[in-house]
Amino acid sequence: MGLLDDLDRGLFDLVFPRDCAVTQEPLDDEGWLHLSFAGADRLDRITDPRCITCGHPFEGIIEGDRACPHCHELHPAFGRAVCAFRARGPARAIIHRIKYGRSPFLLDDLAAVALSDELFRRHLAGSILVPVPLHPNRLRHRGYNQAERLGDFLATRIPGCESLGLLRKTEETESQTRLGRAERRQNVAGVFQLAAGSFVSPNQRYVVIDDVLTTGATLHSCAVALKKAGAELVDAAALCHG
After folding, report:
1. What is the dihedral of CA 136, 224, 148, 199, to 10 degrees?
2. What is the pLDDT at residue 9?
3. How far is Cα 194 from Cα 24, in angstroms, rounded to an integer?
4. 30 and 80: one domain?
5. CA–CA separation, 91 vs 112, rounded Å?
6. Chain center to CA of 196
7. Do residues 63 and 70 make contact, with C-beta atoms less than 8 angstroms apart?
8. Is residue 63, in this structure, part of any structural domain at all?
9. Low-confidence spans in the chain with pLDDT less than 50
10. How high is the pLDDT of residue 65?
11. What's the number of CA atoms in the CB half-sphere (13 Å) around residue 213?
12. In 3D, which of 76, 202, 203, 211 has the Cα closest to residue 153?
């Protein structure tokens, strides 16, 4: 926490105490800047057993081979994706505020809680994080890239990590929100390329990072671009799955 944050909590919060983004109760000194421990406990965490490809949890008793419907027909270019939360309930509401409510600061707290997931933390350790890029028009409209902020936050807290904007988005695509599985794949196919002046190493492990993994189409398309540029070890990660 920086000096300005300290002053913010010490002065401004005395007059206008922050409320937890989940419980809506005023924050005390416990927890994070915008999320209390009680609020964090309400986030729907993903635990094992989970899909070893896309990270979605397996629910109930599954006999024999565990075929994940979320990976159906994707054949991802990334090796494995790990996610910390289900994109429903409070986690979904926070992600919605981050992306559409001009509240990028909430991402820091959500990412901090995600780091308590040992598998999520180990999955990222020692890698180069590659945030999913926004098209320049979308970036100007939103004012920030939440995936880039996520990568920067995680890189300062995970040993051996670095976050690099290695990719660029060459086409302004339709929002994935209302598209079906096949339409999502087609919508983002071939729209990511290596950014000018960037290069990848076949000996380095890369993890494409985003706030949400839904079908995996965007992360897959980014992984394809990295592999075309010469990367051989490419995985993926997102805060939420769903």
Report:
1. -90
2. 45
3. 42
4. no
5. 13
6. 24
7. no
8. no
9. 1-12, 14-15, 61, 63-64
10. 54
11. 34
12. 211
- Inter-axis angle of helices 106-114 and 89-100, to 10 degrees? 140
Which pTM does this prediction carry? 0.89
Beta bridge partners of 212: 240
Give Cβ neighbours of residue 51 (< 8 Å, ≥ 6 apart). Answer: 57, 58, 66, 68, 70, 71
Looking at residue 21, its amino acid is A
Pair (93, 174) in one structural domain? yes
CA 193 vs CA 53, 165, 197, 214, 221: distances in Å: 23, 11, 12, 21, 9
CATH number of the domain within which 216 lies: 3.40.50
Task: Determine contact, residues 34/105, Cβ cutoff 8 Å.
Answer: yes
Structural domain for 180, as ranges: 76-241
* Pairing of the two strands 192-194 and 128-131: unpaired
**Which pLDDT score, from 0 to 100, does residue 186 have?**
81
- Give me the amino acid identity at 235: D
